[in-house]
């Protein structure tokens, strides 16, 4: 069985990233037995140095008004429901997610890290929890089974690692979600499950090309989101 290594860049305040994560996971499951997929999650901050703020306000500022923000929220909510996800924009907040990414990088167990990543998405997107607060982050880590709570979320080493993650992403594409398969094939945006399946199979065949010729999925960059 061939192995495909997938590097995934995402951010917890990117509304499309959770959707893309679910669709990618469906693709991995559908190809189980054909391709072994090894996933590495990398950090990307859409709002570096931005203090937490109301998500609707942030969308309006980035998209140029309430009408555009409403269209974006409608598109995200509709796509989210297809994956069983609830977007509570009235409670969501937007800001610098350095601490959340640092928390994940403190966790050596891949399974626990995966559980925590999923919990962080739900906490900030559905539950209205403050994922910018250290105490909340530590509580979420404990909730998924992390026992070591002596995390250094201000670690210079981890901060440098986050910077390296973002620099690598910027050399591949603009914004997140971003998936790089075997360092050759990349997919940007919350694409359909079939697109992720094709990318995995193309990477397994060592086809060095970007997936094109299909409708683009929603994605988020430093300056805003598209769909």
Description:
GO terms for molecular function: oxidoreductase activity. This is DsbA family oxidoreductase. It holds the Pfam family DSBA. There is one protein chain. With 227 residues, the protein is of the alpha+beta class. The chain has a single domain, classed as Glutaredoxin (3-Layer(aba) Sandwich), CATH 3.40.30. It is 44% helix and 16% strand. It has eight helices and eight strands. The protein has helices at residues 17-30, 55-63, 66-82, 98-105, 110-125, 134-143, 156-170, 193-204, and strands spanning 2-10, 35-43, 53-54, 93-94, 178-181, 185-188, 219-221, 224-226. A four-stranded mixed sheet has the order 2-1-5-6. The protein has a two-stranded antiparallel sheet with strand order 3-4. The chain is globular. It starts with a strand and ends with a strand. 39% of the residues are buried. The model has no long low-confidence stretch (mean pLDDT 92).
Largest sheet: 4 strands, mixed
Instruction: Predict the CATH topology.
Output: Glutaredoxin
Span of the ends, CA to CA = 35 Å
Globally, the shape reads: globular
Spatial strand sequence of the major β-sheet: 2-1-5-6
What is the name of the CATH architecture?
3-Layer(aba) Sandwich
Output the radius of gyration: 17 Å
Average pLDDT number = 92
Specify the CATH homologous superfamily. Answer: Glutaredoxin
Helix content: 40-55%
Given this structure, which CATH class is correct? Alpha Beta
Low-confidence stretches: none
**Helix-strand string:** EHEEHHEHHHHEEHEE
Number of strands: 8
Main structural class = alpha+beta
Strand content: 15-25%
Discrete helix count: 8
- The total domain count is 1
């Amino acid at each position: 069985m061939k192995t495909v290594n997938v590097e995934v860049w995402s951010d917890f305040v990117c509304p499309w990233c959770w959707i893309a994560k679910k669709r990618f996971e469906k693709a991995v499951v559908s190809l189980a037995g054909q391709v072994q997929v090894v996933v590495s999650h990398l950090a990307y901050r859409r709002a570096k140095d931005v203090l937490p703020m109301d998500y609707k306000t942030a969308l309006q500022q980035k998209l140029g008004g309430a009408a555009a923000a409403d269209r974006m929220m409608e598109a995200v909510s509709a796509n989210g429901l297809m994956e069983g996800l609830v977007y509570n924009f009235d409670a969501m907040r937007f800001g610098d997610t350095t601490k959340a990414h640092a928390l994940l990088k403190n966790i050596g167990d891949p399974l626990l890290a995966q559980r925590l990543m999923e919990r962080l998405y739900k906490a900030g997107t559905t539950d209205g929890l403050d994922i910018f607060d250290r105490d909340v982050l530590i509580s979420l880590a404990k909730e998924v089974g992390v026992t070591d709570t002596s995390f250094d979320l201000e670690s210079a080493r981890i901060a440098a690692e986050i910077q390296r993650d973002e620099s690598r992403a910027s050399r591949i594409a603009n914004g997140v979600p971003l998936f790089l398969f075997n360092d050759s094939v990349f997919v940007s945006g919350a694409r359909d499950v079939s697109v992720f399946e094709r990318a995995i199979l193309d990477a397994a065949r060592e086809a060095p090309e970007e997936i094109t010729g299909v409708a683009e999925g929603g994605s988020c960059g430093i300056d805003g989101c598209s769909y």
